[in-house]
Specification:
CATH architecture: Alpha-Beta Barrel
Number of helices: 12
Strand content: 5-15%
Helix content: 40-55%
Number of domains: 1
Largest sheet: 7 strands, parallel
Distance between the termini: 29 Å
Strand order of the largest sheet: 1-2-3-4-5-6-7
CATH topology: TIM Barrel
CATH class: Alpha Beta
Structural class: alpha/beta
């Protein structure tokens, strides 16, 4: 049973408009039928690889594991045509170790904070975690919203907490994780997207998931958020970035997501400053497909070094 919609959430839903779920599903199904020619496929694979946030978010993370992750981020494969990833993403305690290896390079350091993945600690503690990560060298912060407060209609509280995290970030980019699987409906996902975007800066992100629940990024919830970004941009001129996370494991899936971005937001979003994949398990698959395209020979999975995978 879906939770009863609060008056405050109902008003927000009325303001941003409903989602045509049947229409969404029809559109995303068509993305999977697009024919992508060889040259465009190579471009898409390289682009997707350059958008990966290479991640380790495990209780057993060590400085050595993070060092290995950073080496993989800087050089995913020996072939010179293979680009670096966009960022490495680690827990706040590991930021200083990542900084030893990638600070000063094009690879950015992202850190999940605000009591990831639950967000269920006092705000003071969450903000301290953000400040510590930024002080240690984080270029980007991935925060989780208080989904319970959102569903209870405490929308001002949710938005105020996003603003407080933004202030704690300073110049660091903020990615706001909605955890779409816990928001229950497409209407709620659209409403939460707008709630976050109303206070975000150009270049900040909204993100589907933590990757720590059974429900992750899908073409459907991704499309709801892309449509919200487009509508917000048309209304305000503010370009908000997008990050799907969790469950994207094949090159074919990544290309489907990029088709959705191109057809909804246009080429301006086909850059890792406006789009990321939170899908570390995707990296070797993209490299493998690129090498298969380059050499004409199928590349076995064990040809490539293992990377640390998180979400």
């Amino acid at each position: 049973m879906l939770p009863k919609t609060s008056p405050a959430l109902r008003r927000l839903l009325d303001d941003v408009g409903p989602v045509d779920e049947a229409g969404i599903q029809e559109r995303v199904t068509k993305y999977t039928t697009r024919s992508i020619k060889h040259g465009s496929k190579l471009f898409g694979l390289r682009l997707a690889l350059s958008m990966v946030d290479l991640t380790t978010l495990e209780g057993g993370d060590t400085p050595g594991k993070v060092a290995s992750l950073c080496r993989k981020a800087l050089r995913p494969h020996h072939a010179p045509s293979i680009p670096q990833v966009a960022a490495v993403c680690v827990y706040p305690s590991m930021v200083k170790h990542a900084a030893k290896h990638v600070k000063g390079t094009a690879v950015r350091i992202a850190s999940v904070a605000t009591a990831f993945p639950s967000g269920q600690t006092p705000l003071k503690s969450r903000l301290a975690e953000v400040r510590a990560a930024v002080s240690d060298g984080a270029d980007e912060i991935d925060m989780v919203i208080n989904r319970g407060a959102f569903l209870a209609g405490e929308l001002q509280l949710v938005q105020d907490e996003i603003v407080a995290v933004l202030e704690a970030c300073g110049d660091a980019t903020l990615k706001v994780i909605l955890e779409t699987g816990e928001l229950a409906t497409c209407d709620n996902i659209r409403a939460a997207s707008f709630l976050a975007m109303q206070v975000l800066r150009p270049g900040d992100f909204i993100k589907t998931s933590t990757g720590k629940t059974s429900a992750n990024a899908t073409l459907g919830n991704h499309q709801v958020m892309l449509d919200a970004i487009r509508d917000h941009f048309l209304a305000t001129g503010t370009a908000i970035a997008m990050k799907p996370a969790g469950g994207i494991r094949t090159a074919k899936q990544a290309l489907h997501f990029l088709v959705a971005v191109k057809e909804t937001l246009g080429d301006a979003w086909l850059t890792n400053t406006r789009y990321r994949f939170g899908a570390s398990a995707l990296l070797n698959e993209l490299v493998r497909q690129l090498e298969t395209q380059r050499t004409g020979a199928y590349q076995a999975p064990w040809t490539f070094t293992e990377d640390s995978t998180g979400y």
